[in-house]
Amino acid sequence: MEQLLEKSAALVQRIRSEKKRYLYNEINWNNKLIGIKGARGTGKTTLLLQKLKELKLLPTQGTYWSLDDFYFTTHSLVETAEAFFKKGGQYLFLDEVHKYENWSIHIKNLYDFYPDLKIVFTGSSIIDISREEGDLSRRMLMYTLSGLSYREYLAFNNLYNFEPIALEDILSKDRKWAEMFPAEFKPLVYFEDYLQYGYYPFSMEDKQGYATRLQQLVRLIVEYDMAELKGFDVRNAKKMLQLLNVVAANVPFQPNITNIAKKSDIHRNSVVGYLHFLEQAQLIKLLYASGISLATLQKPEKVYLDNPNLAYAFSTSSPNVGNLRETYFISQVSVRHKIAYPKLGDFLVDNTFTFEVGGKDKTSKQIDSVENGFVVADDVEFPITKLPLWLFGFLY
């Protein structure tokens, strides 16, 4: 165990803590058991190490372990945690829990046997606590970490620091949100850069190699992480990548299951399930008609990539502008709100607000008869009668 404590101490010492993801201050760190899930590359590991650094504990009191460490191929998590607890351990931060077989049962045992030990763990976005063998759902607080918002992107690149804006404030008629931006703020200067490079924090490490790294990340998710999904046969990973390429070439679109099956070489009876798997992995987003129950797998009305950066990573040419606008909107708004496909307009949010998304010349003609309808326009900084698209990147 000593080598684990030494690794943890070294990582904590090196981590920088000036900038923290939006989720950091939303987590109730006092809870005894906390879970954080999210896609690869969104900053889960950094978040754990930053909290551990803030606690200012001795390595024997608070430690970070990655469960894909070779150490755990020959050592038991429970026995190692027991030894840590006996040495005065108070906080146990576990990363990549889905890499450890039957992880939920082991964490449940630690929770039950060591009431004074606080456990925080992270795992892939594919984790479904309700289907795990260890009954953790009533014992824990579960959070999901999304990629960088446009607001965070500006802050992480030392451009501007702004507070988040709630949706009801964005939609308010008094438009007080405009007062928080200084006169010199030009939101569109950095917006295109965000759409191409801004969603994953690692873009700041190597912007030139970002697209290649993003493609590698997607392959790792499909070929490695998705093996943990119940009902997914890892031998079909290649077909999943083919399906993702088909979706990337057409999004947003109303899926024709038969055509998708032909292009991706997947049996049509399996296409809907595979789309659901890709959504669990935070690679795509599925939009369903309003009022539809999602208790069983159903064909979605529209399919989008999870975020605009993926559109650039998969496109052989410049992505469709309309596609980017809608993908940006759904990626930012869906973090805090429920989105459905309305009868009129592009998006129905929280079953209350209807949005039509377009360029600066977009009119309200399509949603004139809709109560609580709003036009969201791209290519404008502070429009008078419309809402600027970039502003929805300030929701978190």
From TrEMBL:
Instruction: Describe the location of the AAA domain by residue ranges.
Output: 30-154
Q: Which UniProt keywords apply?
A: ATP-binding, Nucleotide-binding
> For the DUF4143 domain, which residue ranges apply?
225-336
Query: InterPro entries of this UniProt entry?
Result: AAA_14, DUF4143, P-loop_NTPase
Recorded hits in SUPFAM superfamilies, A to Z, give: P-loop containing nucleoside triphosphate hydrolases (SSF52540)
Single GO MF descriptor: ATP binding
Q: Which Pfam families match?
A: AAA_14, DUF4143
Query: Quick check: keyword Hydrolase in the entry?
Result: no
- The name under which this protein is listed is ATP-binding protein
Q: Which organism is it from?
A: Mariniflexile aquimaris
